[in-house]
Amino acid sequence: MKKLLIFGLAALLTLAFGSAYAQTEFKASGFLDAEYVLGRNIRSGDVRFAFGAAPPAGFDKSLSFIRSRGRLMFNLNVGKELSGTIFFEIDADPYGSGPGSNSAGSLQRGVAGYWGADRSAVEVKWLFFDVAVPVIPIPITVRIGEQGWGPRGSVFSGDGAGISAGIKLDPIYINPLWAKALEGSLTNADDSDMYGLNVNAKIGKLTVGGFGLYYNFNSYPLSFNSATGAFTGNQKANFWYLGAYTDGKVGPVNINFDFAFEKGRVNPLNADKLKYKGWITKLNVDYPWNKFNFGGGVYYATGDDKNKTPEGKFNGYVIPPGSESVGGFGESLILYGSGDALPSGGLGIINAGSTSFANMGAGGTWWAKVQAKAQVTPAYSVQAKLFYIGDTTKNGNTWGTLPDDKKFVGWEFDLINTIQVYKNLKWTIAGGVMGVGDALKFVDDDGNVRKPKTPWTIHGNLMYNF
């Protein structure tokens, strides 16, 4: 009854504003999906076999589950000068999940699939408003609130509170931004901030751009005591990210290029500082021909030198705290947990978030791929991808724990089928298989060298967009 009253009040307010402002426009959009997952040695939460010596509980065992995600976005626009956005996300991952907690709160995040329902699993993804700056003749829009950050997915793709601006000086677009990663104590200088500038220009059929980001973390890492909610970081970190990118068409070929360089340092408590330096790049090329697309790509991210780590140097590329760019930049279905079949989130072997500057899935690997896609009928398409994946860490391995330096992570083949059932209903059936190389072997507690059985997965995702 309360829910009906709330929705009724929201509808009345919308009508009231609509009557007062002729230009007021209310929009609702989002999606609901259901996904079944089958596989072995894929799920990062259970079988992250490359992260340590002891085999996890799900090692070399098959798994199956169903999960779903819902996203709901509300936009209220008042002319071209003002708009507000509220974006929710609800996860049931998986169906039949535990209660999380009998008390409403963050421990019920993602458990909308609990038997009995009634979980506080609604997450606020975005909460911002856009304002066009008046008087100034140059088109400038300011966005204030919880929003998505990401000059490019190669560096940062996540959400957080802050202020950004869009300045249009055709053909140039300027995007200054600031975000507050942590406020900490209101009376102490323990804040953690991110400052940045993203600039691009349209040159013919190409968009060419560059960016710079500076992370000034006076409290680090971004870790909290889950029992008290208190912040527990006691270090400092300062990082720079500089990047360049290109998107568009060169002749008949579509290209997508990214490069980013990272340099920074962490000052641990009562210890010498640790210096970081690394870079990452990716190039994708796609050639459309009739109902087909043929393409390929290369990706490289620097890895650490294990001999220099004790000297306080980390040479691998690292992503910032809170970044969700891991799987998106890696692309493959199994190893990186990305691909067109995973709208409910990644399940990759090395796909994991972090509260620190870390090479969680990005640094320390490289790949080369070939791919092809065919639009078989107006409602059905199929795509195939083949990856060769290598290790860039020196004098050791990025994910495996063998003492010897190994360079072959493995090969991976992914097949993605997409069926447009109705205009707003899409069914994706995707599968992948991976041959594991020596760079993913590890030594167990008994000193035995372990090689995971062939990882494989099948996903079936039914998505309703509105």
Structural class determined from secondary elements: mainly beta
Strand proportion, as a percent range, falls in over 45%
Q: For the CA atoms, what is the radius of gyration?
A: 23 Å
Low-confidence stretches: 1-21, 46-53
State the name of the first-level CATH class: Mainly Beta
Morphology: globular
Question: What percentage of residues falls in helices of 4 or more residues?
Answer: under 10%
What's the structural domain tally? 1
**Spatial gap, N to C terminus:** 25 Å
Number of strands: 21
At CATH level 3, the topology is Porin
Structure annotation, total helices: 3
Give the mean pLDDT: 85
Order of helices and strands: HEHEEEEEEEEEEEEEHEEEEEEE
Could you give a short account of the major beta sheet?
Answer: 18 strands, antiparallel, barrel
Architecture in CATH? Beta Barrel
Report on the architecture of this protein.
This protein has helices at 2-20, 44-47, 326-330, and strands at residues 24-40, 62-78, 82-92, 122-132, 140-149, 158-169, 172-182, 192-203, 206-220, 235-250, 253-267, 274-289, 292-301, 313-314, 365-377, 380-391, 408-422, 425-436, 442-443, 449-450, 456-465. The protein is mostly beta strands. The chain has one domain: Porin, CATH 2.40.160.100. The strands form 2 sheets. It has an 18-stranded antiparallel β-barrel. The protein is globular. The model is unreliable at 1-21 and 46-53 (pLDDT under 50).
